[in-house]
Design goal:
43% strand, four-stranded antiparallel β-sheet, single chain, 2 helices, mainly beta
Amino acid sequence: QDGFLQVWRQAVRGAGPRARHKASQLSMRGYPGKVSCLAWHPSMPLIATAGGPDIVLWRLPSGGGAAKSQPLRHHRRPLTTLAWAPDGRMLAAGDRDGRFSLWDAKGALLFTQGLDEEITTLGWAPDGSALALGTTGGQLRLLQPRHGYRAGMDAVLLAASVPAEPGQAVLDLGCGVGTAGLCLARRVEGLRITGVELQPDLC
């Protein structure tokens, strides 16, 4: 609410029962409003944050010193959600106007698209092959790469043909990246859906 970000880092000195735990604190300021969302990079000391329309990347120092900030400017409305890809190569962002953007880890804009509703959540497939976007209107959208494995209309038609009812359990064998299950969950509320996929590059 005060427009700054605090990070506590634990340092351990010594070993065994005599080990001493000490926490160091970093404070990052400069946000126009409250920090609304943040996402840790999966493998680097890097945090993506937002407290307005700009993304701010904070690179944390390995030792002492202050964190270095890098603002990424593209959105005009406050950001609502951020998500790093599982391999850390791309960062996805969504805002209140429904603007979606995709960045690389160095801060270069790769892709942007305008939707018609506020984006409330983002979620990558475990292998990074697809990205799901949720909106305030109850829509779920799936973004896929131009090349490689992609789900088609057959998954949507399959979900439409399942006679499931709220509260039931559904097992999807050979689910791929989960498109059919996601569509079914959107159509029928209160389902417990389990997806099983043998191909490691899809799950």
